[in-house]
Amino acid sequence: MGSSHNNKSRIFTPCTRTHQIGALLLITTTFFLTRLFDQSFSPCHSSPVNQDGISHRNHVHISDGGRSISWPERGYGSHLSLKIYVYDENEIDGLKLLLYGRDGAISADSCVKGQWGTQVKIHRLLLQSRFRTKKKEEADLFFVPAYAKCVRMMGGLNDKEINQTYVKVLSQMPYFRRSGGRDHIFVFPSGGGAHLFKSWATFINRSIILTPEGDRTDKRDTSAFNTWKDIIIPGNVDDGMTKRGLTLVQPLPLSKRKYLANYLGRAQGKVGRLQLIELANQYPDKI
User: Fold this and answer.
1) Within 10 Å of residue 199's Cβ, how many Cβ atoms?
2) Is 17 in contact with 25 (CB distance < 8 Å)?
3) d(C-alpha 167, C-alpha 98), whole Å
């Protein structure tokens, strides 16, 4: 009876509009105060500026249509800040074979000329690049130098030796195994691409491959080019066509170029090469 009496004696105040407005104001005030405290105690966004006047912020933020996205400033933001490690020819047993052949008689100067010169030029550019690092632990990408196409064509290594040497070199790279080769870059500067390394599909199928042609397989069952990770690069352009002063040809000024095509070597009946030759003959003032 006492319990019943107590329940009957309780007085419940009905929820009026005034209470609803007060609750709404309380929620709104709490929300804005929370945002205010978050901004007050968040890390300062100001950061030192380098000699180029670029701020080293951690992230780039962009708002579009009410949505906000962000990504890392370094490497993907308003400026390029990658670090690339270039393997030295003396640090890995076998790498010199891919550069100079079994007898070491093939020189880089002889390989830089002609159709496959990009394999040497890219290596030399990266050695002098401001993005180069000598610390593997801070590298974003790793470049594996090799002049294997030139070495093969000049008799320095045969196909079997090239394959065995690549496998031997890769087995000595702990950072390659760390990522499955995803952050390692290889240059295969001829139409056959990575097929020059017969076991490419087993060992470097996840690596970044730079090659001048990706439209065919050279009568092989599988193409070595993957559009999601590999990059088409121009074939080698002779220095005599690009250097200042007297040149072999007078190319169109960049300001007048709407199309750009590059081809150096034999056509060999390849459809892509024949199309480039046909276009060049058809539009000599445009390509």
Assistant:
1) 15
2) no
3) 11
Q: Could you tell me the two tokens for 57? A: 């912020």
Q: Tally the C-alpha atoms within 13 A of residue 116's C-alpha that lie toward its C-beta.
A: 23
Rounded distance between C-alpha atoms, residue 69 and residue 78, angstroms: 14
Structure tokens, 124? 């030399």
Digit-coded pLDDT (tens) for 218-241? 566 677 888 899 998 888 877 766
- Strand 208-211 vs strand 184-187: parallel, antiparallel, or unpaired? parallel
Long-range CB pairs of 48-52, under 8 A, 24+ apart, other chains included: 52/79
For residue 176, the SS3 value is helix
Structure tokens at 279: 């276009």
Identify residue 259 by its one-letter amino acid code: Y
Q: Do residues 230 and 200 lie in contact, with contact meaning Cβ atoms separated by under 8 Å?
A: no
| Residue type for position 54 | I
In Å, the largest CA–CA distance within the chain is: 114
The 10 Å Cβ neighbour count of residue 251 is 13
Distance from C-alpha of 180 to C-alpha of 202, rounded to nearest angstrom: 11
| CA-CA-CA-CA torsion sign (125, 128, 129, 134) | positive
Dist CA 106 CA 147 (whole Å): 10
| Helix intervals (H) in 43-112 | 73-76, 95-100, 108-111
For 79-88, the pLDDT digits (tens) are: 667 899 999 9
The pTM score is: 0.67
- Classified as helix, coil or strand, 259 is coil
Measured CA to CA, the distance from residue 176 to residue 14 in angstroms comes to: 71
Q: CA of 149: how far to CAs of 36, 182, 197, 213, 229, in Å?
A: 62, 22, 10, 15, 22
